[in-house]
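WARN retry 2 of 3 for item q-0093 after timeout on previous attempt; input resubmitted unchanged.
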Amino acid sequence: MNRGSILSVVTIAALAVALTTDATVGQSAKSDKDRFIGSWTLISLTSGEEANQTLPYGPNPKGTMMVDANGRFSITVMRSDLPKFASNNRMSGTPEENKAIVQGTIAYFGTYSIDEATHVLTVNVEGSTFPNFTGGTQARILSFNDDEVTYFNPTPSMGGSAKVTYRRAK
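OK item q-0093 returned
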């Protein structure tokens, strides 16, 4: 092999290593906060463990989570089968309609921080459709898998525990 061939092989190998490093290692080297920032679409929400696991928002819940770089978040979750109001006026719902909406939705917003060493997300709730959350602080354990984020919530609004998974919105 001549000197020019060796130089070409070394250059190609160095370029391949650099591209691989940027594409793979660079992605996993991002902080949890950097990976968490963005718009997310709910793909699953379960409550409880193993045999006691339930789907509190039904088998096809809808939801979104918005997370910004300034430490603010907003979450909305709802059943996909919420009933329409017969009156076509949300202020005139029947007791049954109102109950279905209250039990089938949750929305809250506030600030967040992430402990990078433990992957713990802490949310400070400024407002919620479940007033008991307002003014409170909650901790969740984050995990990432490609374009999905999952968190374990030990104190959801329906009691017990919850596992919530979102996919990055396109």
